[in-house]
Design goal:
Elements: H1 5-20, H2 29-58, E1 62-66, H3 76-82, H4 86-95, H5 100-106, H6 116-130, E2 135-140, E3 148-152, E4 155-159, E5 172-173, E6 179-183, E7 186-192, E8 195-201, E9 204-216, E10 223-233, H7 242-253, H8 270-292, H9 301-304, E11 305-310, H10 317-328, H11 333-343, E12 344-347, E13 358-360, H12 361-367, H13 369-386, H14 392-398, E14 401-402, E15 405-407, H15 408-414, E16 419-421, H16 424-434, H17 436-441, E17 446-448, H18 455-461, H19 464-474, H20 495-520, E18 529-534, H21 543-559, E19 568-573, H22 581-598, E20 607-612, H23 617-623, E21 629-632, H24 644-650, E22 654-657, H25 663-670, E23 676-677, H26 682-691, H27 696-702, H28 704-711, H29 722-734, H30 741-759, H31 762-775, H32 781-793
Parallel strand pairs: 1-2, 1-11, 2-10, 11-12, 12-16, 16-17, 18-19, 18-21, 19-20, 21-22, 22-23
Antiparallel strand pairs: 3-4, 5-9, 6-9, 7-8, 9-10, 13-15, 14-15
Helix pairs in contact: 1-2, 1-4, 2-5, 3-18, 6-32, 8-10, 10-11, 10-13, 12-13, 20-31, 21-22, 21-28, 21-30, 22-29, 27-28
The structure holds N-(acetylcarbamoyl)-beta-D-glucopyranosylamine.
The site of N-(acetylcarbamoyl)-beta-D-glucopyranosylamine has 19 residues, from helix 6.
C-alpha cells in the first residue's frame, strides 16, 4: 500500500481525536499507542478481507498449523515493517513530537509460548504470510502467558503476567464463529439404520470463542489469520442458580487461563489434557464448517485442507477428525482413516523422553469418552494390521496404548502421513534410535525439515544499523531472497568493510550496555567480548558448562592478576520451569557467581556476568544484535535443532558449538574455520551409553583446573550457595553427570581460549562474523515453510522470488 506521510498524519490525528476526544499534544503514550494500533489494523483490513475472499474463491488448499504455543513477540513494529510503512509512520509521528520507540516499548510482549517450539510457530506464521502460503495458526488465547521471572536474592520467582490487562489491539473477537466443545459424560453406540451412532448423556459443554489476529505478510497483499480460542460458559448454562453459575464459570474459564510453563517436562495434569482437546476440537470444527461452505463431498477434504500437528500437544487431532468423519459425516472407518492420515502431518521437536506425552487411560476415558473409544479402536486395528508383518515385541513397542497409557507420539505417527524432525541430525537420530521401529514400519513417512527464523524480526527490525550496512554493500534483494546474503562473501577481505562491521557491533553493544546500566545498574565495557547464552534453562543445554569455564577464568585471574585474558562480558538469559528444581538451582548458582565476580574490584572490567531477568522475545531482540559469541553447547544428540543459533549467526556472532542440532548445518554453511566446534559427537555419546564407560569422577580427580572449579561449589568460595553448590557438585561428581559436563569441560576451555586468541585480531574475527552473516540466509524460515508446503502439505506457494 502506498501511504504518504501527510495522509498518515491526517489519519492519525483524526483517529486520535475520534477515539479519545483529545488533541495530540494532550495525549499520552497509551493513547498514542492504541491510536496507531487501530490505524494499522484499518490499513491491513482490506488485505485481510481480500485474502480470505480470494482463498475461498480460488479454492486454494488451506494449511492449519495447530500449536499449543505461538510466541509472537511485540507486533507493532513488525506490522509496520510488513506493511512497508515503517519509515513513513516514524517520520510522521516525529513531526507530532512522538517517538515511535516509546510506543513500541509500551506494547506488552505476549508470552504465549515457552521457548523454541512456540517461537518457531511464530516465525512460520510470518513466513507463510510473506510467501503467500494460505497458512493459518490455531491455538489457545491464554489469559496468562508464560510467567514473568524475577530474581530475589538470586532465586527465580514466578509472577503471573496478565498481558491482556490493557486489552489487545491486534485481535478481533468473533462470537458468531464460536463452537461447542464437549467433555465428560457417558457415551454408548446405538444401531441406527445399520450404522453405529454414538449417544451421549451428561456432557459438559464449553463454548470456544475465537479471537483472530491478522498475520501480515511482507508482500503487500497477504494477510493470514491466527485463531486463538478462549473458553467461556455456554449460554445454555447461564440460567443456573447464581452460586453454581459462578463455580462452573470459573471451572470453564480455567481451560484457557494459563500456559503451562514446562518446556519439556511432561505434566500429567488433567487441565492440560482439557486444553489440548479444547483447541483441537474447536479448530477442527471450524475448519469443517468453512469447508462445507464449498458444497463439496467430505471425501475431498484432503484436497482442500492440511492440518499440521506441532509436537504431540495437538495429537488429539487424529481421533477428533475421525470422530467428526465417522459420527457427524457418516463415513465408514476405512475411508475416514485414509482421509485423516492424508490431512494430518506431525513434527517432532525433541528426543528428551520425559517430553514425550503419555496420558493415563482412565483420565482419557473419563474426560473424553468418545475420543477414548476411537483411540482404542485405532490401536486395535493397528495391532491387527501389523500382526502378519511384525513380531509381537515390535507391535507392543509401537502400539498406542501400552502399560495403561496412551502414547501421543505413537498416535501422531500412526495417524498422519508425514513425520519430520527439525534438523538433519535430529531426523537421523529419530530414524536410527528414538523412533527406529516406526522408521522400519513407515520409512516413507519420515522426512527432515530444518528449522528456520524470519530475517524480518531477527535482522530488519532488531538490527537496523546492520540492515542498512548490508543494503549498502549488496543491495536489498536479500531481504526477500535471503540466500543473496552470500554476496557478502565478496567483501571478506575488504578491510574497510570489516572495520565498519566491527563499528556496528560496537554500537549495538553500547546500546545493550546502556540498557543494562539503566535496568541493572551494572557498567559494561563495550570493547569486551560479549558472549551470549540465551535459551531456556535445562540441564542438557549445559549453562553449567559455561559457568564452570567462567569460574576457571576467575581463578586464573585471582591466582595470577597479571594473566592476560581478553575482557569478557558473559550474558545469560533463561527461565526455568517452576517445578524444575535442578534448573532453578543453576539459576541461583549463576546469580551468586555473578555477584561475586561483578563485585570483585581486582577483576574490574576483565570479567562481568549479566543474567538478565525475564528473558523474552523483546529482550532477545536487544541482546542478539550485541553478541560477539553465540554459545550453543548442548550435549550432542540432545538439542533437536536450536533456532537461537541461527538468529545469532545472522547478526554476526561467531558460534562456539557442539555438533548438535542445526549447529551441524551451520558448520556446513560457514566452513570449519568460521565456527568453533568442541566436545563429544552424538556417536560418542551413544557409545558411552552403550558401554557404560563414562566415569565423571576421573575427570574431577585428574584435571586440576576442573578440580579447583568444582571444589569452589562446596568449599565456601562462592557465598550463598551452601545447598545448591553441594547438590550441583553431587550431580556432577557423584551421580554420574548425566550430560557429560566434566567430559567436555577441557575441550570447551580450549575452544574458549581460541575465541580469546582470535578476537585479538579484529580483522580475522570480523571476517568470521561476516561469513556467518553471509551463510545465514539458508536458515530463513521462508525457505523452511516453502519446503513444508511442497513436500508435506502439497500446496503450491507463490514464492517470494516470483
Ligand atoms: C524445541 C527444541 O528443544 C529446539 O531444539 C528446537 O529448535 C525447537 O523446539 C523448535 O523446533 N522444543 C521445545 O521448545 N519443546 C517444547 C515442548 O517447548
Amino acid at each position: 500500500m502506498k501511504l504518504t506521510k501527510d495522509k498518515f498524519k491526517e489519519d492519525y490525528q483524526r483517529l486520535l481525536t475520534e477515539l479519545y476526544s483529545l488533541d495530540i499534544k494532550d495525549s499520552e503514550v497509551s493513547e498514542q499507542y492504541f491510536t496507531l494500533g487501530n490505524l494499522i489494523r484499518t490499513y491491513a483490513s482490506n488485505d485481510w478481507k481480500n485474502t480470505n475472499e480470494s482463498y475461498l474463491k480460488k479454492g486454494e488448499k488451506q494449511i492449519y498449523y495447530f500449536s499449543m504455543e505461538f510466541l509472537l513477540g511485540r507486533m507493532l513494529k513488525s506490522n509496520l515493517l510488513n506493511l512497508d510503512i515503517l519509515e513513513v509512520v516514524q517520520k510522521g509521528l516525529q513531526e507530532f513530537g512522538i517517538h515511535l520507540e516509546n510506543l513500541i516499548e509500551f506494547e506488552v510482549d505476549p508470552g504465549l509460548g515457552n521457548g523454541g517450539l512456540g517461537r518457531l510457530a511464530a516465525c512460520f506464521m510470518d513466513s507463510m504470510a510473506t510467501c503467500a502460503i494460505p497458512g493459518h495458526g490455531n491455538g489457545i488465547r491464554y489469559k496468562y502467558g508464560l510467567f514473568k521471572q524475577k530474581f530475589v536474592n538470586g532465586y527465580q520467582m514466578e509472577i503471573p503476567e496478565h498481558w491482556l490487562r490493557n486489552g489487545n489491539i491486534w485481535e478481533v473477537r468473533r462470537l458468531n464463529k464460536a463452537v461447542t466443545v464437549r467433555f465428560y459424560g457417558n457415551v454408548w453406540l446405538e444401531n441406527s439404520s445399520g450404522r453405529l451412532v454414538p449417544r451421549y448423556e451428561n456432557e459438559e459443554a464449553v463454548l470456544a470463542v475465537p479471537y483472530d489476529t491478522p498475520i501480515i505478510g511482507y508482500n503487500e497483499q497477504t494477510v493470514n489469520t491466527l485463531r486463538l480460542w478462549s473458553a467461556e460458559m455456554h449460554p445454555q448454562d447461564e440460567s443456573h442458580e447464581y452460586g453454581a453459575f459462578l463455580k462452573q464459570q470459573s471451572q470453564i474459564e480455567n481451560i484457557s487461563e494459563v500456559l503451562y510453563p514446562d518446556d519439556s517436562y511432561y505434566d500429567g495434569r488433567l487441565l492440560r489434557l482439557k486444553q489440548e482437546y479444547f483447541f483441537v476440537s474447536a479448530g477442527i470444527q471450524s475448519i469443517i464448517r468453512r469447508f462445507k461452505k464449498k458444497d463439496l463431498p467430505i471425501s475431498h477434504l484432503s484436497e482442500e485442507v492440511a492440518i499440521h500437528i506441532n509436537d504431540t500437544h495437538p495429537a488429539l487431532c487424529v481421533p477428533e477428525l475421525m470422530r467428526i468423519l465417522l459420527d457427524d459425516e457418516g463415513m465408514d472407518w476405512e475411508s475416514a482413516w485414509d482421509l485423516t492420515k492424508k490431512v494430518l502431518s506431525y513434527t517432532n521437536h525433541t528426543i528428551m523422553s520425559e517430553a514425550l506425552e503419555k496420558w493415563p487411560i482412565d483420565m482419557m476415558s473419563t474426560l473424553l469418552p468418545r475420543i477414548h473409544q476411537i483411540i482404542c479402536e485405532i490401536d486395535q486395528r493397528y495391532a491387527a494390521d501389523m500382526r502378519y508383518r511384525y513380531d509381537d515385541h515390535m507391535i507392543e513397542r509401537t502400539r498406542i496404548i501400552e502399560g495403561g497409557h496412551i502414547k501421543m507420539a505413537h498416535l501422531a505417527i500412526i495417524g498422519s502421513h508425514s513425520i519430520n524432525g527439525v534438523a538433519k541430525l535430529h531426523t537421523d537420530i529419530l530414524k536410527e534410535k528414538v523412533l527406529h521401529d516406526f522408521y522400519l514400519i513407515f520409512p516413507s513417512k519420515f522426512n527432515n525439515k530444518t528449522n528456520g527464523i524470519t530475517q524480518r524480526r531477527w535482522l530488519l527490525l532488531s538490527n537496523e544499523p546492520l540492515r542498512q550496512f548490508i543494503d549498502s554493500k549488496i543491495g536489498s534483494n536479500w531481504e526477500v531472497n535471503p540466500t543473496d546474503l552470500t554476496n557478502l562473501k565478496a567483501f571478506q577481505n575488504d578491510e574497510d568493510t570489516l572495520f565498519k562491521l566491527a563499528q556496528i557491533k560496537k554500537l549495538n553493544k553500547q546500546r545493550f550496555a546502556d540498557y543494562v546500566k539503566r535496568t541493572m545498574n551494572l557498567t559494561l565495557n563495550p570493547d569486551a567480548i560479549f558472549d551470549v547464552q540465551v535459551k531456556r534453562l535445562h540441564a542438557y543445554k549445559r549453562q553449567l558448562l559455561n559457568l564452570l569455564h567462567i569460574l576457571s577464568l576467575y581463578f586464573k585471574l585471582k591466582e595470577n592478576p597479571n594473566a592476560y585474558i581478553y575482557p569478557r562480558v558473559f550474558i545469560f538469559g533463561a527461565k526455568a520451569a517452576p517445578s524444575y528444581m535442578y534448573a532453578k538451582q543453576i539459576i541461583k548458582l549463576i546469580n551468586s557467581v555473578a555477584h561475586m565476580i561483578n563485585h570483585d574490584h581486582h577483576i574490574g572490567d576483565k570479567l562481568k556476568i549479566v543474567f538478565v531477568e525475564n528473558y523474552s522475545v523483546s529482550l532477545a531482540e536487544r541482546i542478539i544484535p550485541a553478541a560477539d559469541v553465540s554459545e550453543q553447547i548442548s550435549l550432542a544428540s540432545k538439542e533437536a535443532s536450536g533456532t537461537g543459533n541461527m538468529k545469532l549467526m545472522l547478526n554476526g556472532a561467531v558460534t562456539v558449538a557442539t555438533l548438535d542440532g542445526a549447529n551441524v548445518e551451520i558448520r556446513d554453511q560457514v566452513g570449519p574455520d568460521n565456527i568453533i566446534i568442541f566436545g563429544l559427537t552424538d556417536k560418542e555419546v551413544y557409545q558411552y551409553y552403550h558401554d557404560g564407560s563414562y566415569h565423571a569422577y576421573d575427570y574431577y580427580i585428574h584435571n586440576p583446573i576442573l578440580h579447583r572449579v568444582l571444589n569452589a561449589l562446596i568449599d565456601g568460595t562462592i557465598p550463598g550457595i551452601e545447598i545448591e553448590g553441594q547438590d550441583i557438585f553431587d550431580s556432577l561428581v557423584k551421580y554420574g553427570d548425566e550430560y557429560f559436563v566434566l567430559r567436555d569441560f577441557e575441550d570447551y576451555r580450549l575452544a574458549q581460549e581460541k575465541v580469546d586468541q582470535i578476537y585479538r585480531d579484529t580483522l580475522r574475527w570480523q571476517k568470521m562474523a561476516l561469513l556467518n552473516i553471509a551463510g545465514a540466509g539458508i536458515f530463513s524460515s521462508d525457505y523452511t515453510v516453502l519446503q513444508y508446503a511442497k513436500e508435506i502439505w502439497d500446496v503450491s506457494a507463490k514464492s517470494t522470488q516470483d
